[in-house]
User: Fold these one by one.
Assistant:
Number 1:
Amino acid sequence: MNAKIIDGKAIAADLRAAVAAETKRITAANGLQPGLAVVLVGDNPASKSYVGSKTRAVIETGMRPFDFHLPDSTSEDALMALVRRLNADAAAHGILVQMPLPPQIDASRIIAAVDPAKDVDGFHPLNAGRLASGLPALAPCTPVGCIKLAKTVHPSLAGLDAVVIGRSNIVGKPLAQLLLAENATVTIAHSRTRDLPALCRRADLLCAAIGRAEMVRGDWIKPGATVIDVGINRVTGADQKSRLVGDVCFAEAVKVAGAVTPVPGGVGPMTIACLLVNTLRAACTQAGLPPPAV
Ligand code: NAP
């Protein structure tokens, strides 16, 4: 069997184009230009490159970027003061503080300080609680992207046996909540799960958010299942060249699964596209407008 490759790059490009069209319409009709504030503390190369991609995407979509780059030595009080300033700034509809933060800053205090209405990362405990309670919420971008990719294969996820490996607040837990909201039957696995391969083999929809290169092997996958690989791991090959791989062994998965996301080019591009959706939604809510049509 040769699995369908879920082309996250193309799906994300379509979503970004839809967000751009909707932003244009809303800006023309209401004079509302959604604004996204992105705060980077320090010089982590991966974070810098990610923040750069976000800013480019914001500009391409017709939204307004507000970029803040603070030194690695920034105190928690100084970052907190910036977050409070942005909370009060009506032009900044979304606020994103890039993680990880330097060790002198308590990330959970910063996350809790962001106005939940502007929490486009969906990390604030209020949004996490609303999501878990089945109430409208700004949900984390990567899991929302996973759902959108899964739905390109299964227009309805209702009744599917879904296994999520990973229980982080950023990916695993919100992904499980979103799947539950879609009426899937959800199991969350983690490092203490017994016989993970057997558990995975039950899944119609297998989502891996582990952070371990190619841990999920072909014989963990039920024939015909859909596999969503969230992992991004840098490895050095036998040729000494560095490359990105997922948490799933793609070469094996593609022979067993019905559909699978590649790394790179699967879940990754969806994250920024879903951030744009969240920013547009947050702007509409703050302006008292109906939700956007994306
Ligand atoms: P994380 O916070 O480190 O969480 C990893 C989860 O995997 C934990 O719940 C952990 O279990 C579980 N785990 C670790 N080893 C395991 C094992 N041997 N068996 C079963 N479960 C195991 O990571 P994260 O932030 O969720 O990210 C996960 C991956 O997704 C990383 O590769 C990250 O780079 C990637 N990611 C990608 C995007 C994107 O845009 N594509 C966005 C975010 C993250 P315990 O809880 O028991 O420790």
Note: The chain has a mean pLDDT of 97.
Number 2:
Amino acid sequence: MSTRETTLTRHLLMQQQASPGATGEFSVLMSQIALAVKTIAYDLSRAGLVDILGATGDINIQGEVTQKLDRIANDAFLQAFEYGELVSDLVSEEMEQPAQIQGNTDKGKYVIFVDPLDGSSNIDVDVTIGSIFSVHRRPAGSGDDLSRALHLPGRQQVAAGYALYGPNTMLIYTTGKGVHGFTLDPRIREFLLTHEDIRIPSRGSTYSINEGRRLEWYPSTRGYIDYVQQKDKATNRPYSGRYVGSLVADFHRTLIKGGIFLYPADPKNTNGKLRLMYECAPLAMVIEAAGGRASTGTQRILDLVPTALHQRVPLLIGSSEDVTLAESFYK
Ligand code: AFP
């Protein structure tokens, strides 16, 4: 590494210097998130070699089988925020109630929402998975009052982002101004700035949806997918279909190359599958900061006011023109 390369720490310090009144607390918070990501990446890198693959035997709050690595990733986030009095509570896909962070009880300016290991059913087959995080200012309250006060709309997020555990480990984040991507350099275990100010193309030529659910789809979803599959040179159709089944991986491809990802509602899953506060809202903040759009089909994701911490919502996310066109099928 040349000392001229921009590490995450250097990047955060530069951002801090450019923001009058910044206290440096956000930079420390991002370093704590980076620490959790590095810990998880290390555990994943030896997953096939030590006994951490497979299910724990428990079912999480979503009714899904908990993988051992889900638990390990959740603990990595809980431990990364211990002490320092920055983060008071963590809301996670893996825990029914918010967890107080050890050493920071009722202190800390921030609360974190996290999907510690997104796409965990792909772990056993060595396919890219990730973590998704959302940072909010801590509202007043404690116990049940705090749980209710945590029903915060995505537009109030202070920062959001995700990590990818794939051929590279990547960390992508935004505070609303620019989306920046860092790649973990395994020699020095530091994140280096590799994707500065990511912008999503205004239109793509790829769609991403679980086509196995086609028979369940509402006519609106079927109508839009039929549209992207039709031939039309002028609009670059038919689009190519791509679906990994890890939201972070499908999202990252869409962010870099353009196009659209959909997890719509259907009559069986009237709110879709994906969780608002730690999947859809953080990725919506990232996509909007990159020039794209995120919608339920009828409403902007960032405007939704949650009614429950683990609420699910339908998601259409990607290039602005693609999402706007898809929405026209849901009117
Ligand atoms: P798992 O974490 O249980 O693998 O679920 C992953 C996920 O929440 C999200 O990452 C995917 O986009 C979506 O589910 C895939 O769901 P389908 O298997 O229904 O397509």
Note: The pocket of AFP is lined by residues 64, 118-122, 210, 245-247, 250, 273-274 (CB under 6 Å).
